[in-house]
Amino acid sequence: MQKTEPTPTEANDSWKDTMAHRKQVRTLLQKIVTELIKRQILHDDSKLDEPEKSMFDRYTPMKEWIYGSDEYLEHLEEMGPALKHHYAENRHHPEHFENGVNGMTLIDLMEMLADWKAAGLHEADGSMMASLRVSKERFGLGDQLYEILTNTVKELKW
User: Fold this and answer.
1) Closest by alpha carbon to 39, among 133, 121, 107, 117?
2) What is each CA distance from 104 to 53, 96, 125, 145, in whole angstroms?
């Protein structure tokens, strides 16, 4: 059976369908926004209680570390069980997941990126692009994800 093009009088006006689609997308995006607001409120709550608080009391003032340096990695090792607890309690860290970044959701990645930016503000250099390059190697970020994170940083002017 041959299809024929609708004549102007038979054509469907897409306005109603478009408006319904827009409403559905808004509802779905609101779920994402709600989850991000929840993350915003609860971010790093575990640092406020033991076993993490005393460890962060000791190490947080040491802001001269350069992210990814040997000294930085040594300090991570020294932070031991308290840092392992922090990673276990906070899914915005790749270390939270057995398979690292591959276990994360987009929401986790957004919180992670904001966390990385905020952490970099305490460093002498604080370059977000340098941080991303180190994190690419440290966490085995694939090229595609690395580019997406880089694009996001650029768009947000971080």
Assistant:
1) 107
2) 25, 9, 28, 12
pLDDT in tens, 6-46: 655 556 789 999 999 999 999 999 999 999 999 999 999 99
Q: For residue 88, give every residue at least 6 positions away whose Cβ sits within 8 Å of its Cβ, in sequence order, or none.
A: 96
Among candidate residues 47, 130, 32, the one with its CA nearest the CA of residue 93: 47
Work out the angle at residue 136's Cα, subtended by the Cα atoms of residues 83 and 131, and round it to the nearest 5 degrees: 70
32-36 contact pairs (CB < 8 A, 24+)? 32/107, 35/107, 36/107, 36/110, 36/111
Q: Where are the domains of the chain?
A: 34-155
pLDDT digits (tens, 9 = 90+) for 92-106: 999 999 999 999 999
Determine the residue type at 52: E
**Is the pTM higher than 0.85?**
yes
Alpha helices by DSSP H, 47-105: 53-59, 70-89
